[in-house]
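User: Run a structure prediction on this.
Assistant: Running it now.
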Amino acid sequence: MLNEAFEHISGRVEETLQPQGFTRAKIASANDNELVALFTSENMAYSVIYYKDKQHTLLRECGMTDEGPDNNWKTLATWIFDPEHDTMKEASSIANDFCDAISAPSAVKKLKQAKKTKKSDDGNADPLFLSKRFVTLFPDIKDEIRNEQDCYYPFRGVTFARASIVPRVNKLVHEGKAGELKKLGNILNAQYVNGDADTRSIITIVILNGIPEADEAKIEEYLSDNLKKAFQYAKKWRNKTAKPEKEKKKKKTIAQRLEGMQR
């Protein structure tokens, strides 16, 4: 009964999302306590998830990155479904509510805005945008990005890349797992094409040049032809002392700002 009801709800959501450019992804549940259906477009993702222990059915949304959902999920609706007492009638009610939520004018407007933002970002990708792309590979880097934003303005792209991105990239490349190397290559290729001058320099001179020479061949096979050529050119800067990034004004922490307001 539960599986039938979940597929009914998911199927209805899929039918509603397809005209908006969404496709259903082939994914497996993370554990035995969950049933999950994922729907993605270029700019947004929706998921229907059922938690067996709580008997909760959720509709969620989040943004998309080059590597998939950014996993910053926002719950749009929650319903209780008890498979021992509820029927397909209740499942249909849940499906109707979910479909209303994703087809509402506000939802359609949000999708259009996400497309517009993505287009703008792709044309003007800066070092901060580049750094956020690595969250899909290194989820723990998210807090370091937030801390950098809180403490410094503008974002210190070179400093952050050297301290937080390069060590993680080097470890990943050294371990040489094909799936992760491919994801890394996809991020670097996309952001080299879409990035501004600072972003391109960070990719070639900081990140790629930061990879030990013994390991660089492992990532080169996953780089685009354009990025390979740029990397070869950037190698002449390896081991040379570059002009340090201009020190930027450190922002006061939230606590310091509140303390100042109380004086």
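Confidence is low (pLDDT under 50) at residues 119-123, 252-263.
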